[in-house]
Amino acid sequence: MKIVIIGGGVAGMAFSIIMQKKGHDVVVNEKGGSIPLGGNAFMMHEEGVSVLAEILGNQALIPGNFIDTFILKRPDDSEAMHSKMEAWQCIKRMDLINALLSVIDKNTIQYNRNFSHFIYDRGKAIAAVFENGEVEVGDIFIGADGCNSQVRQLLFGETNFTKVEVQEILGVVKNPELAKKLNGVFTKYQHPEKGISFGCIPFSENEVIWFNQFDVSLTPKPLTTKKDFQRFTKTILKDFPALVHNILDATDFSQSYLWNTKDFDALTTFHSENIVLIGDAAHISLPFTSAGTTNALFDAKQLALEIEKNFELNNAFISFYNSRIESIKDHINLGRKLKASFLYPMMNAKNEIEIPLIKTAVKITPEKRTENKLEIIYFTDPICSTCWTIQPQLRRLKHNYRDSLNIKYVMGGLLPSWKNFDRGGIQKPSDVVGHWNDVSMESGMPINSSVWLNEPLDSSYPSSIAFKAAEMQNTDRAIIFLRRLNELVFMESKNISNIEVIKKAAIETGLNVPKLLNDIKNDAARFFYEDLEYAKKLGVDILPTFLFKVNGIDTQFLYGAQTYQSFEKTILKYAPHLPKSPPMAIPLDIFSEYPSITKHEFKYLTDSNDKIADKLLDDLLRFGMIKKQNTPAGSIFLSNTKNRTFLF
């Protein structure tokens, strides 16, 4: 079997070495005239070091310096945190690349091959074509071409990177005395009120890497030259201790780098036919986690394991994705949480400060991930008012049982059309007004019913089909999309059967709109009607309905409006040992999970009354942590940090 790898970075070379040892024919295609040795240094988790040692075949070859202590200080040099941590290694990128080059067969690497496209035969790639006209035929093609992967773009379209809100300048100082003084310690200075930090880590007996992270809003103008880097760091860090300035004074800024920190949401798959992504091409998390190199090595080993274990290539790639995606999502979420903590340090309780590194990687295993044993089938509809008002209970449920509970959304088809419609005394659009007003009054959730007088919906089917189309792209994002449709109809009085309103919701929630519109006309409608048949088969005629399934067996139905206690009572009855997450520690935690929250939801999730909720929300608004949006139904509060992963 011939394996063609696009990209000669850590992931590509590591995978090449592993597969060569297994007897496969491997070609690594690097776009430049040599493997880039630039970049400074990075932290690698001990589990990544273990995989690297296995790949290199000689523990003595592993470069870098052992780090096991984290110290957080303030600009006045006072200590805010001092903690022992898991074993890490700080490694210079050049040293790691050279270590891999010392093991790999030099004939494996082909240079000056900038990827262009694939040649296909019956849907599968048979060759990679490069801009210099050269062609490499193969059986498997690995996209290991980094963050801005051309292979990923070719497979899945343009990548929606998150907005750059933090930049990072990195430099290196050669100073044996300082390296010795800081030996084994990751030291970070963090401003208590602004998004400004300075960190330094020794990575050899003579050298120390440093970084200056900062909120981009603090830059008076774009930083484009090395002199800009030097002037800016000395200015923004002027109130930091003498040690910081000694390091800056000793730095050769001609060798410094500026990183624009960004990431993208977890992909729904890493492969298409016989092409698969690994490393930064498949996933990236923000650099606060220092997860990149560790994940690249884990990808290389896990993919090799799956290819050897599975006879069918497609099964190997699916197993590879399933074995990696949960830890990848965890790292993405941690990076975003750490970024929010960095940008808004005043909102951090002292005992909530986290070490800015991944706590652990998921250990390599050829076994499949254990599936959740408890599943809830949620029969709903975008215009179901009770489905809207039950959101506080659902959000609390999902938070409390986040890792143990799988909730599957099924569309119930509340309003096919107004022709011969008669449900609960409602026969025409104007009849909905009083019903919605009553539901809002009883529940406390805001609803404006004027859409039924000004621009009534003809059917709930268009928005339901749109949800199924969104699910075809990404299940988590589809749930965010459904939430946005709910807000548009219940709070903003918009007709969500209108395709332009649906497009607006899709754009705002980061969906691929052309694909969504195409899927609405094709498979999504079929999936929606399958939902209707499923509901009919079970006799579901009340929305919402919740079907609890234990070990795949239908166990209990709950119909209509529910208290949180009724949900939890059912869970405890059928799955009493289901792990439960701790409650949210501080109000900001709520906005780190949900992009938009009504005051009623906020009260419910914080277990507070009107007065306390108003005070907490006012504080978050005053510090710029959230935004307030006024709608016909009242105010809704929005997270002011856009790069999050949300549950409902």
Helix content: 25-40%
Q: Tally of extended strands?
A: 24
Largest sheet: 8 strands, mixed
* CATH secondary-structure class of the largest domain: Alpha Beta
Basic shape: globular
What would CATH call the homologous superfamily of the largest domain?
A: FAD/NAD(P)-binding domain
Low-confidence stretches: 362-372, 641-648
Q: What is the gyration radius calculated from CA atoms?
A: 27 Å
Content-based structural category? alpha+beta
Report the mean per-residue pLDDT as an integer: 88
Describe the structure in your own words:
This protein is an alpha+beta fold and 648 residues long. It folds into 3 domains: 2-36 and 48-57 and 93-161 and 264-352, FAD/NAD(P)-binding domain (3-Layer(bba) Sandwich), CATH 3.50.50.60; 374-574, 3-Layer(aba) Sandwich (Glutaredoxin); 588-639, Arc Repressor Mutant, subunit A. The strands form 5 sheets. An 8-stranded mixed beta sheet has the order 3-5-4-12-13-14-11-15, with helices on both faces. The chain has a 6-stranded mixed beta sheet with strand order 6-2-1-10-17-16, with helices on both faces. Helix 1 packs parallel to helix 3 (93-101), helix 14 (461-473) runs antiparallel to helix 15 and helix 21 crosses helix 22. Mean pLDDT is 88; it is low at 362-372 and 641-648.
